[in-house]
Amino acid sequence: MPKLKTKSSAKKRFKMTATGKVKAGVAGKRHNMIKRTPKQIRQNRGTDLLSDADAKIVKKYMPYDR
């Protein structure tokens, strides 16, 4: 069976944790920040874990990163 290719866009945007969860940057930080409250800006720093439904999709794009 041939090797599967990893989606290039997925490997740039997501990282896997040691337990198999998917880390990603938090959405909503790029523009329109004047509308966000200081609390939202603080809480959106760093990365976040994806929900199980979203992680399942991302794992299909990264077959060797499980």
From TrEMBL:
Keyword Ribosomal protein listed: yes
Keyword vocabulary terms for this entry: Ribonucleoprotein, Ribosomal protein
HAMAP family named among the record's database cross-references: Ribosomal_bL35
Domain of life the protein comes from: Bacteria
Species this chain originates from: Amphiplicatus metriothermophilus
Organism lineage: Bacteria, Pseudomonadati, Pseudomonadota, Alphaproteobacteria, Parvularculales
GO terms for MF: structural constituent of ribosome
Protein name as annotated: Large ribosomal subunit protein bL35
Family: Belongs to the bacterial ribosomal protein bL35 family.
PROSITE patterns the UniProt entry points to: RIBOSOMAL_L35 (PS00936)
NCBIfam families for this protein: rpmI_bact
GO biological process: translation
Gene Ontology cellular component list: cytosolic large ribosomal subunit
